[in-house]
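Structure record:
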Amino acid sequence: MTDPWTVLEKERRLTPEIRRLIGERYGQRGVKALEIVDEGRVKRYLDFFVVVGSSDEYVVEEEFCTCGDALFRRGECSHVIAVRIAALTGQFEDFPLWYQDSWKKEPREA
């Protein structure tokens, strides 16, 4: 089987062939990762990539993700796969600030 990452590094864009290869290699996780990228749910901050999930935002750094799937199953989750795709294709929203600076600050009580 052809490695999708080798082809994607060369192409730097999602082709039908690369989409097929990702789906074959990762199954439903790959399909979900492609949907995440297509929907523009990958953000790059100065310190991390963040993926907007269906119920939360997940921090992704290299092969680590804060989602339950990655923490408990210890495999490559759809968020990690999506970040790899987005990083190679440039399909992410860029935020020139640290991730924690994006958190809303709660007003202090007087």
Q: What stands out?
A: The CA atoms of residues 5 and 85 lie 8 Å apart. The first strand starts at residue 42 and ends at 44. The first helix runs from residue 4 to 11.
